[in-house]
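Can you make up a protein sequence with its backbone structure tokens?

===
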Amino acid sequence: MSTPDSPLSDLCTICHIQPPKYRCPRCSIRTCSLPCTRRHKLWSQCSGVRDPAAYLRRNELATEASFDRDFNFITGIERSIERAGRDVENRGIKVGENTGYVEDLSVVGLEDEEGLVAPEQQDRKRKRGPPGAGNAEGKRPMMKGEAAFLRRAESAGAKVVRAPKGMSRNKMNESRWLPKQQALTWTVEWITGDGQKTMRTCMETSSIADSYDRTFPLPKEEKKHNKQEDEKSEQKTLEEQPQEGTVQDQPSTTEIPAPSTVALPDGQPETSDANAQPQQPSAPSEPLEITSHRDVYFYLHRPRTTTKHPVLIPLSPAMTITSALRDHTVLEFPTIYTLSDSPDAILSSREDPRYILEEEYIRTHQSPEESSEDSAEVQDNQLPPGAIDLADVDETKVLEVLTKDLFEPTTAA
């Protein structure tokens, strides 16, 4: 306890009431309690952390306290290095072999620091530019074979959104371009109705049903039963086909109708039959029917939506991976849901939906840009109040009235 006769040097430097108990490691200010210590840090803008480069006298070096400070400083550096190594491994940052240089400095925010780049990396930077300079997006450098994969995916009509480097979805993506086969192989994520996820690579030319069968193979007994049923159905169709003898012989000659002349209206030139090439209407390709395969329906997941429910696009089992991804966006690789509910069943459950179809999402979640464009078109077609539509006004009459007003002499009042 302090006495009325105690000097100020023996009391707390903040409150000047109690004797000091603590000493600041940074500036050696003595305080009596935690509130006084916090007040000291606030008033003096002191961090409270000891400065390892602070000057010490020679007689202060060979002390236990000095050895403890040095030991804590060195062990702190070791812990920081270990923590940085674990962070590098967890984030997937590539580091040069047998060196302490980081290959991709943009990951750690040091792309402008040349002193931290390995010598071979500096040479490549001078000659060929920084790694990934050919990347138009500028987000992260291209991996080996990634540019060819993205070009092929773009030519096939699929838009691939790349996840940030080191993210789990980026690490799981094994999609690549096979130069020998001249085909893409996609990493497909299959999600069942109970939420189970399965990853498997599939060729772009394989159908959705075949890819699903390879990912979730049937038992041997069920395979054998299905094979027998297929053979029976094929034999039945062959029996129902008519025999060759019942087909009527077609005549060997066909009559060619004479070219008929058509009366053209005046002012239009006549065209000969040789020059006239009528365009035959191309038969529109019928969309594949959305059916079930092994009692499940297939849906492509649409990423980056504004709703909390997954937005799904129905797929036909006979579609190939390429046709299923055409004009659609995927995040690194496609995600396909295998559900027992049909598209009609998903549409009927609007009150408490678990999933949303794409057509319903587009109808109910129209983007503001589209709505503003629609409103702008309507405003352009509508006339402002008080305006007159001059589409049916004769220009010659207007010109006559203007010439009369300009060139006829006016009578003075």
Notes: The longest helix spans residues 64-91. The chain has 13 helices and eleven strands. The CA atoms of residues 227 and 239 lie 19 Å apart.
